[in-house]
Each structure stands twice: as C-alpha cells, then as structure tokens.
Design goal:
Elements lengths: L2 E7 L4 H14 L4 E4 L3 H13 L21 E4 L10 E4 L13 E7 L3 H16 L3 E7 L5 E3 L1
Parallel strand pairs: 1-5, 1-6, 2-3, 2-4, 4-5
Antiparallel strand pairs: 6-7
C-alpha cells in the first residue's frame, strides 16, 4: 500500500506549486521522480526548475543529462524509476503502473480544468479500490495547502 496525496491546484499554477513540493522532498532527504505526459512538458519543466525563483536551485536532470542515478530529482515521460526515487510526482494526468514501488505519490491536477478534475476523481476511485492510503489537499485563497 502506497500513500497517495492528491493536490488540487485552484489558486496557484502547477508551475508555481511543483517546485515548492520538490524543495520539501529534498529537505526530507527523499529522491523524486517527476512523471509527465509527454516530452515537450518534460523539457519545459527541466528548464523551469532552473529558473522558477531567483536564487533557488533544485538539483535535477533528464536522460539528456547523463546517469539518472546521479539525479535527486529526475524528470521523465517514461514510467521507469531510473533514479531509485521514493517519491513520485504525477503531473498533467500522467499515470504509473508502479505505484507500489514508491513510499509516497503526489498526484497534482488543475482544479480549473473540469476534464482534469474528472480524471483525478477516476484515479482516486481506482487507487482506493487498489487499497492505497489516500489524502486530498486543496489550495486556500493564499495558495497554501489545506487537508480536506
């Protein structure tokens, strides 16, 4: 059984929220895998993590950066845990067949997109049937996460 947390983005964008969650992962000394739906988004987030905030730096990489095992945060569009991550971030509706191999899964979805909300509800139902431990987090008006 894996702990899966749904992050319902309502006031801040994925581009604002993901780097902050990744910072917290590294602070807790966990390795992270960011699984995206396609290669274009992978390249976008690879660039974003270098520039999301002045003075910040998140050590990360993709297959183009060399050995995935050297990357504490690995960004990919393939469902493979090549950096031996314990935390999995599912972005843009990405799904994994390997949820049980992670300590914790973060499923981030856009609350302003009805299709994304519907798909997240379907994933929630599926994960619940599979016996995973589920949590739901929603942003308040300031962008802070509150457990619902």
């Amino acid at each position: 059984m894996t702990d899966i947390s749904f992050y319902h983005l309502t006031t801040r964008s994925l581009e604002e929220a993901l780097p902050k969650l990744l910072e917290l992962s590294l602070q807790s000394e966990e390795r992270a895998l960011v699984l995206l739906g396609n290669e274009e988004r992978m390249e976008f987030f690879n660039g974003l993590l270098w520039t999301y905030e002045p003075g910040s730096w998140l050590p990360h990489g993709t297959m183009e950066d060399g050995d995935p095992a050297d990357q504490p945060i690995f960004i990919t569009s393939r469902d493979e845990n090549l950096n031996e991550a314990t935390f999995l971030f599912l972005v843009d509706g990405a799904v994994s067949e390997n949820l049980r191999s992670f300590k914790r899964v973060f499923d981030l979805f856009n609350g302003r997109d009805e299709e994304a909300v519907k798909a997240a509800r379907n994933r929630w139902s599926s994960y619940k049937r599979d016996g995973h431990s589920l949590l739901y987090w929603k942003q308040d008006e300031t962008g802070r996460w509150t457990k619902a």
